[in-house]
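Hi support team,

I'm filing this because I wasn't sure whether my run with uridine-diphosphate-N-acetylglucosamine finished correctly. The job status page said complete, but I'd like someone to confirm that the output block is well-formed before I use it downstream. Pasting the exact inputs I used:
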Amino acid sequence: MRVHTIHLIAAARPNFMKVAPLYHQLAERAWCNPVLVHTGQHYDFNMSAAFFRDLGLPEPDAHLGVGSGSHARQTAGVLTAYEDVLLDTPPDMVVVVGDVNSTMACTLAAAKLGVPVAHLEAGLRSFDRTMPEEINRVVTDALADLLWTPSPDADENLAREGVAPERIQRVGNIMMDSLEMMRPGIEKRRAWRQWELSPGGFGLVTLHRPANVDQAATLETILEALAVVAAELPLVFPVHPRTRDRLDEFGLLERAENIKGLVLAEPLGYVDFMSLVTGCRLAITDSGGIQEETTYLGIPCLTLRPNTERPITVTQGTNRLVETDELASAAREALAQPPEKARRPEMWDGRTAQRVADSLEHWLNP
Ligand code: UD1
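And here is everything the job wrote out:
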């Protein structure tokens, strides 16, 4: 039997929990040699290595060390560095996940060299091209050979864009595999204890989208809204490095630190963070993944965005899109409701990596 080499592209924090279950699944299959390629888009310990440790991933086989930069610079850095890897040791297939700049850059490098690409988490659309991720999704899906989708809306988006049905396969949401794989450790962690909080007695905040944090006036208004919520429910806010930089630059850091009931924390590893997600009464976020994790867990989520590429979390799940001026009242309404029961979308069941590996096996026909 020929062993097929599969590159798995790990790049930024939201990718690691998508890559890990698939890496572990492929490592068990005799026909497969999974190779981890880290582009270096995220590089701080808390943004990268902590996730490798928590998710049991080995050191990457290749590290491109691209780092931060403008969109063009970061994308170009990944494109040229990854092209060298592909020319040096071409794999049988490249698997990209999610929608970060590295996802698009690696897809483009591979497609130009005729190396097949599969995209995990394909087909999601916010229909908002002011979001850098939307451009990454559209380009990645246009070029990828095999499109693994998490939900029916994604299938429909791809069909509408003229993608041939044989390229689309619904596999479910791989992040739930990570959550299930790590559940015993997450349940034991009880990370809220370090702030003397109790389960169900706090809210969790994350913010990092350029649209929310890159302008002083917008960020300041969000802080004011958080202060109103924090007066009723203590909030833990692990601050993304982009957001910390902006708070600092706009002279808002001290103000944020002094908001009563709001705890600013460093970014957390996977198990600590998911421990807070499982224990919180309410999440306030602009992340994509947290909208899905809270839906899976039945935790109310208020998403500070005008749109979402994950509409199933609103129609079937516990997610609600809110404007900043509605945040405090939406939080109050959520707190007045009894805790919800999880309504899990179909195939968000912890077995997505298995389906992806089966699909890959079928496609490569080893
Ligand atoms: C990126 C992704 C976004 C994803 C987010 C999760 C793109 C276009 N954006 O946004 O989709 O939701 O990751 O975090 O790919 N920085 C550090 N240390 C790090 C990484 C970043 O200090 O390890 C700082 C740097 O100042 C950097 C800034 O954060 O310039 C932004 O990082 P970048 O990767 O460009 O974008 P994110 O906002 O993290």
